[in-house]
């Protein structure tokens, strides 16, 4: 498994930051490598809620279906999958002064015969980290100043 993680501080309150981040359809607003994130399941976010994602990785667009598998008042975890990769994405938000700290963790497992090259793909997965974290920080800070 390849794990990519990081945290950012924002000016947005923890409650508002988590409300925005847990609506996973907002991913395309902060992650430049995920241009499409559509809500499949109607209604408020809940365990079992599903999303259709299209992510760009190494120059190719890949579709995944994500499902919310854990949800509390400051934590959400989703499982995304297609035929070549399984991803577990976790978002944890905690208060920090008048703002918040958002921790994002993505764990990737390569499926099928390409699993053998998984260690070689770690740098490519790690290259997704900073653009996503910068997007989270900038998007949440813009919401705080709105």
TrEMBL record:
It comes from the Bacteria. Pfam families: Polyketide_cyc2 (PF10604). InterPro entries: Polyketide_cyclase/dehydratase, START-like_dom_sf. This is Polyketide cyclase / dehydrase and lipid transport. It comes from Arthrobacter liuii.
